[in-house]
Every structure is written in C-alpha cells, then in structure tokens.
Amino acid sequence: METAENKRFVYEFGKFVLDPQEKTLFADGKAIHLPAKEFETLLLLVENNGKALSKDEMMQAIWEDAFVEETNLAKQISRLRKLFNASGEEFIETLPKHGYRFSADVNHIAQPFGETILEKRTVKRLTVKLEENSEALPPLLPAAKRKFPLPAIFGVASILLAVVSVIWFWSGTKTPAKINSIAVLPLRPLTEAENSKTLGLGLTDTLIMKIGGLRQITVRPISAVTPFADAPQDALEIGKKLNVDAVLEGTIQQSEGRVRLNARLLRVENGEQIWAEQFESEAAQIFDLQDRLTAQTAQALKLKLGASETEQITKRFTNNTEALDAYLKGRYFSNRRTVGDLKTAIGYFNEAIVKDPNYALAYVGLADAYSLLADYDGALPADAYPKAKEAATKALELDDELAEAHTSLAYVKMFYYHDWQGAQDGYRQAIALNPNYATARHWYTLL
Length: 447
Prior knowledge:
Layout lengths: L6 E7 L2 E4 L4 E4 L2 E3 L3 H12 L5 E2 H8 L7 H16 L6 E4 L3 E4 L4 E6 L3 E3 L2 E3 L26 H22 L9 E4 L3 E2 L4 H19 L5 E2 L2 H4 L9 H7 L4 E10 L2 E10 L5 E10 L3 H15 L6 H8 L6 H14 L4 H17 L4 H16 L5 H18 L4 H13 L4 H14 L4 H9 L1
Parallel strand pairs: 11-13, 11-14, 12-14
Antiparallel strand pairs: 1-2, 1-8, 2-3, 3-4, 5-7, 6-7, 9-10, 14-15, 15-16
C-alpha cells in the first residue's frame, strides 16, 4: 500500500519535469543538471507558481547565510530564461521594481520512491517473490511441519556462498577516488619557435579559465603553473607540490600551417593515466582545437555539465584568429612580469583589439598589464591606472559576466582611486561569478 511516506513529488510544466529529490530538471525525459543555485532559484519559483516574489525574499531564501549582490539573482534568472526560451517557453515574468513570478500550468505529481525518471521511461525496483499458491511449487507447510531434504540445504548454501563471494569481491575492489582538484601544466613546445611557446602557454591559460569557471573542481591558477613552463617536467612531482589529485600535461608543435597537440591526464596518487588524446588542426582552425581540448578534458574529469556550463566552456570571446593569436602572445608576455615584457604585452593586447574591437578578454589583458606596469615602476600611476580603468570598463560593457573584468576594475579602484566599497563590490562580484579565479581572491585579500 502506498502512503504519503513512501511517495515523492515532482513538478510538471510543459515538456519539463522538476524533481526536488534528485535536484534535476528533465526536458522530454532527458536530464539537465543545473548548478546548485540555479536549481534552488527555479525550485523556489515553481513552488510559488503564480505568486509574485520580491527580489529581497528570493535572495534571502537562496543565499540565506551569505551577502550577495542583486545582480547574482538577475544572472540566475537570465540563465534559466535562456534554457526555457530555447524551447520556446516564457515561464519567468519580471515584475518591474519588485521581483519575479513563475507563470505556468504546473502539475504536482506524486511518485513512489522506487521510480526514477529516465529518458521518457519509468524504471521500477524489481522484487522477486515466491507466491504460496504458485503452480510451479507445492503449497508451503506451516513452519513446524516443514522438512528440507539435504539437496535443498546444499542448494541454499551454495547460493549464500556465491552471494558472500560477490560481496567480498566488490568490497575488495577500490573505486577510484573522485578528482576534486587539478593542475593544468603549460603545454611544452617541441621546437624552440616562439610561436609554439606563446600558443602553448596561451592555450593552457584559456583551459584553466574555462575549466576553473565550472565550480565543480578546483583548478590551480596560471600563476601557480607558469614557473614550470621552462623547466624539465616531472608531472607527478609537480602535482604533489601543488597538492592536486590530477595533472594535465601535454606537448604542442606548429609546423607548415598546422598545429599538433598531445595531452594526457594523470592521477597524482599512483601515476595512472586516466585519459590521453592527440589533436591536430589547421592553424586557422585553432578555435575548434581549443573547444575540443576543453570539452574532452571536462569529460575525462567526469564533470556533469548543465546547459549553462556547456555554454561556458564553448563560449568564444572572438572569432578572429589573428586577434586570438595577438591576445595569446599578450598573455604570454604579461605572465612573465617584467617591465619590458609588460610593455610588449600591451602592444599585443592593443593589436588584438584592433583586429577585433569587441574582444572583451583583450581589454582585460590590457587593463591588467597597465596596472602591473605602474606597480613595477614602468609607468607613472597617473598615466597607467586611468588607462587600466578605461580598458576594464570597456570589457564590462562588452561582457558584464566576466569575472576577470570585475577584478581588473576593482584593482584600479583599490590602488589608485581608493574607492574601498567599489573595490569590495567588484571583488565579491568576481568571486560569485567564478569562485576558482585566484587573482580575484588574492587581490581581495590585499583589500
């Protein structure tokens, strides 16, 4: 008999099913794994279907013990809308100067706990039961009158022995530990060509930024791995020094207009090779190579990607290969942190902006290079910091969800304009957008 205690409830609206117990949204039976806060936002809206919710009460319910900006809620709503709008649905209504309302025909459906939604099918736990009136077996006698012949006893004993053996085998088989942290080592050039060096470190930097923004895994920042770029690499030793579960290492070569890249993922604990792949493409198709490297790395790490995460790792900040090349060179020289290298980096970032005036990351690179140039006494603060502010502001105009841009502007507000509140708000916003962005945490600590 099914009671309220052995049932669970799901919400059905349109082609979607929201399962609070599984913390999963299903679309046409296919699971969409949303980030935790996105799921909490959606669940709050659906549970209050048709009711106007103020921004304050939503933020208090979703971020109960944390201080966050109103923009955090707006970003969660924006991502959910993108998900629903892609299916032609308009479920979330904005109430000007108040908040939001979920408007849909929502069905509250009870399901037994044994049922799981999966690819449009219902899967139930199976129970094997011997019926007393089964025609295949004689009726069972009362317990006191039952007599079991020796063959039956041996048969039962054999089954029990087999079950115990299986349990013993599986208990002795160690499941590989989940990878919670990773260091992406600089891709080593197979030649002394400067282009291979800059491309290798640039791709490393991009991979760190994309994987680090997924929140499901801790990624060591580019500053932690750059010191190993020019030294002979023992990946496992470096992984131990950086205290990570896994390391990604690889090589890169540019030759005759083609790029060849070899990558492999190693478990630091025992040196196990988890994944390895070889990539090759025309130099003009570097974007495709970059996307494939990022996607396969995320897959090898067994990261569960929802719609927003998939969008994040495949997001391209430019489609201009010349702009990308100039940007990667700018990052390469900027990470070397000398006055001469920073001036060279500024030249490359400006070149990237000329090639693509809407390249937000190039403006971020330019802002940081100007700020660091002033810090290293390579330029007067009155000359460098205003230029850094201008570049960071432009980056935010192009992409206000870029944690790096919020961090760059906050740095200028802190060190030059002494706008402490503005700097604090900027750092907090950056950390909310990308908790793995080490530079934001580092500079926030300085504040």
